[in-house]
Amino acid sequence: MKNLQSTFSSPTTRIAIILGVAALILSIPLIAMQFTTEVKWDLTDFMVAGALLFSTGLAIELVIRNLKTGTLRTIILVVILLALFLIWAELAVGIFGTPFEGS
């Protein structure tokens, strides 16, 4: 068990895991585009979503590595995830009416 834990503690491995999870999430709209015309993403959409997912993953990794336990860690993680969802919703449908809205 110790050997497995040391394998996942490598920064290269953790970045590869973050990239893999982001690619897995991005494969959902890619597959959906093959079956329906309601999902219409272009290369820019995939690049922006990938950058958003990767930066969120890195931020979460940074918090997990630097704050071991406690309420502050939980609050910061919730804020990071809330920011991800609000930015994603704004880019998708424009809930705030910014110039970056997706509608």
Summed up:
Keywords: Membrane, Transmembrane, Transmembrane helix. This protein has 103 residues and is mainly α. It is built from 4 helices and no strands.
Helix content: over 70%
Strand residues, percent: under 5%
Radius of gyration: 16 Å
- Name the helix and strand elements from N-terminus to C-terminus, one letter apiece: HHHH
Shape: flat
Low-pLDDT segments:
none
Mean pLDDT: 89
Q: Please tally the helical runs, counting DSSP H or I stretches of 4 or more residues.
A: 4
Please count the beta strands (DSSP E, at least 2 residues each).
0
Tell me what the structure shows.
By secondary structure, the protein is mainly alpha-helical. It has one domain. Helix content is 77%, strand content 0%. It contains four helices and no strands. Helix 2 runs antiparallel to helix 3. The chain starts with a helix and ends in a 10-residue tail after the last helix. The mean pLDDT is 89.
